[in-house]
Amino acid sequence: MDLTPKLIAAADMCEAGEGVSLDELAFLLRYAADELKNRPEAVRERDSLLERLRARVLARCELLHRGEEEMNRAREGSLAELEALDDALDTELREAWGRREDVPPEPQGAAGLLPVDRYRSGR
To answer: pTM for the complete prediction?
Structure first.
């Protein structure tokens, strides 16, 4: 039984001040708690990773001043949508900051060396 719509509807009814059957609400809460307790660890880990990806995509959307449509996709999108959006935002961030993946980072302690000097033999 998928509880999400029922729990959301019950929460909305409580917020609106509508009458909610306490027996039904108690049943839903107990059932949801039991379901969460019995979920396999892999599902909890997947959910955790998905939430971290969602948070990263939302942060990138804010950093790039994205519109509400993309923010909503980041909040509610599937894993495939989040990965596609993350790739697009990553590319845009790299272009915005002028950093390319094909340029190797400066080695530590190599200040002042030209790129050609780093690859000469004897250095």
So the answer is: 0.48
